[in-house]
Design goal:
Number of helices: 8
Helix content: 40-55%
Number of strands: 8
Strand content: 25-35%
Oligomer: single chain
Largest sheet: 8 strands, antiparallel
Distance between the termini: 76 Å
């Protein structure tokens, strides 16, 4: 009888957690839909596949399997094409006895496409594993600002592009701004944190993306074909 009561209690807690999580998910989705409407973006909650092919420059979209986007907001904002979405992928692991475990990953990404070309560039906060990797010879791009170089890991195919784009004004913006990982491809700029974003964080990402693009020197935009 005691065990039965314990099992019933565990089941009741699990159901309660599930109901509460569902309510939070609906509230978050409604807030993101309202944010999208405010910016004139179309919003849809249905799953959409092929985003790894749609944005091929962003390798983090090609992880795992069963990849799809959902809660997608899409449209133009002040001359920029904006796509904000939740993204799912699954990874599998086997233990020493061959038993398989599937882990489901969810994160949110804001992608902005300006009316000019970009080039490969990654900027993210430096972590413990980055410092360990550097101790074993891994290298990133350092800048005159010791504070910026210490706090951020920067990689680019073209180091000159990185130095031109990450000006002192851009460094100050990133040091004082919200923490996002930033990826530039040939045409788009992506901002993400690794987890799911709420409506306020999407707005922060959009503001930061617009500022980053605004700070790109005009001569680079002219070179890109503006």
């Amino acid at each position: 009888m005691g065990i039965a009561l314990i099992v019933a209690a565990v089941v009741a807690v699990a159901i309660g957690v599930g109901v509460w999580s569902n309510k939070l998910a609906k509230k978050r989705r409604a807030a993101i839909a309202a944010w999208a409407t405010e910016h004139g973006l179309l919003f849809g909650r249905q799953r959409m596949y092929g985003f790894d092919k749609r944005f091929p420059d962003f390798q983090f979209l090609a992880r795992g399997k069963d990849r799809y986007a959902y809660n997608v907001a899409n449209g133009d904002v002040d001359g920029l094409h904006v796509t904000a979405f939740d993204y799912h992928y699954a990874t599998e692991h086997r233990d020493s006895e061959g038993r398989r475990t599937t882990t489901h990953h969810h994160q949110s990404i804001l992608v902005v496409r300006p009316p000019f070309k970009l080039a490969n560039l990654q900027i993210r906060r430096e972590g413990l594993f980055d410092r360990i990797a550097q101790a074993f010879g891994a290298n990133d791009i350092d800048f005159e600002s010791a504070e910026f170089s210490e706090r951020f890991r920067v990689k680019a195919d073209d180091r000159k592009w990185a130095y031109d784009v990450i000006s002192p004004k851009t460094m100050a913006l990133l040091l004082d701004g919200p923490e996002f990982s930033i990826d530039m491809g040939s045409s788009e700029l992506a901002l993400h944190k690794g987890g799911r974003l709420d409506a306020e964080e999407y707005e922060q990402a959009l503001v930061l993306a617009r500022q980053l693009l605004e700070y790109i020197p005009h001569r680079l935009r002219q070179t890109a074909g503006i």
